[in-house]
Known about the structure:
Blueprint: H1 9-12, E1 15-22, H2 25-30, H3 32-39, H4 41-47, E2 53-60, H5 71-82, E3 85-89, H6 93-96, H7 100-113, E4 116-119, E5 122-124, H8 129-162, E6 174-177, E7 181-184, H9 188-204, H10 207-216, E8 220-224, E9 233-237, H11 240-248, E10 256-258, E11 261-268, E12 271-279, E13 287-289, H12 299-314, E14 344-348, E15 354-358, H13 361-366, E16 373-375, H14 376-391, H15 395-437, H16 443-471
Parallel strand pairs: 1-2, 1-3, 3-4
Antiparallel strand pairs: 4-5, 6-7, 8-9, 10-13, 11-12, 14-15, 15-16
Helix pairs in contact: 7-8, 9-10, 9-15, 10-11, 15-16
Amino acid sequence: MTSGNLIPTAVLKRKAVVYVRQSTQAQVQLNLESQRRQYELVDVARRWGFRKVEVIDEDLGRTASGAVERPGFERLVDDLCTGHVGAVLCLEASRLSRNGPDWHRLLELCGEVDARVIDLDGVYDPGLPNDRLLLGMKGSISEFELGVLRARMYEAARAKAQRGELRISVPFGYVWHRDYGLGFDPDMRLQETIRLIFARFRELGSARQVLISMIDDGVHFPRPSDGKKMVSFDWVPIRYRNVISILKNPFYAGAYVYGKSEKRTEIVDGRVRKSYGHYKPASEWAVVLKDHHEGYIGWSEYERNQELLAANAYGKAGGVKSGRGGRALLPGLISCGRCGRRLVVMYAGRGQGYPVYRCERGNLMMAQARCMSFNGFRTDAAVTREALEAVAPMAIEAALEAERMQLESEAKRRQMIEMDLQQARYEASLAERRYAACDPENRLIAAQLERSWEATLRRVETCEARLSEVQR
């Protein structure tokens, strides 16, 4: 290390750069003492004799592992290349970099332009072999420390997850209780909505048909209104991603799953870039603990749901496929007896036309001759006769079962609307109390609270109208 009185006057005439960095947003919000100590390096630079001091703090909340871009560090490197920087100040080596390429590139540039590296231990001249060796060791130790911390953290989390004790984020319908651990969300409205999704899928066999039926019934689903905190929610019309995420999540089948996704590393413009959230096949999940907690469905039903969703998504030969509408009776349900491909339906004639079943896939994809093509009316009529003859002996039982299912569906729909109405009345009551507690003189706040109250009252009226319609 060089001493303070050996810093050349030409170097002191340049500017000193104080580099401030913290690895995560949580550290930025909570570790305020570390921020204060890093900003105090401005006084350290002035004590060493620098008159012009610049602070670079654009990388607060960014890791220095090389996985993300750091605009502040890149600006520091650009300033070094111009020769206007006389010294780089940091609290410790890990603040500047935790990966070898960035650290050694910085030292190389400092040595070329005769700039100093200053921390709380002293001043280093990267142009001197001894100082360069010491700085290289500090950078290597910083990089090694990051690897040790990560390995220790990941192994501890994995060991805890293998026992099912790691408190991972849970989907809608579950909460971690402080006293007795994992359990159902106490919101009965949310529980019934999730159970309704599984019941509709059992009945309809298609995620999209579940969505359409629930939209027709006016079912709502919670959406977080506070970002990632998952504490407060807004109930909005249900969407397809809500339905499919519930059907595909093994957590609802009582299984504790850890390690469903992985990170991937790529080299972009000569730098390492890591991306997260890439889902892995179920066979590669790190931890799967069945019967870990109470589920909305059983594991066998979850597996059947996945098979049905896969068949619906890809339409493989021999798989199950739901109809797509139209006048034809069997669209998407019959396959060619020669090639095994699924037949498509076309309509010929004027007006709405009549259905024609064709083996069209081979002709479209490989210009092969069509295996078959036939009129759909005679086929549909024959299938209809066979179906009616098959169910004729049990017509009364089938009618009673259909009536029972219809009554259950209506009762479930009425229950969901009653829960919506109960929630709407609570929100209206809460908005009324907030408005009453507001100072009438504060018109800016009072006007907003009044509009919120009116909106909740309109929602109560809408829910009451829906309930009256269902009851009629």
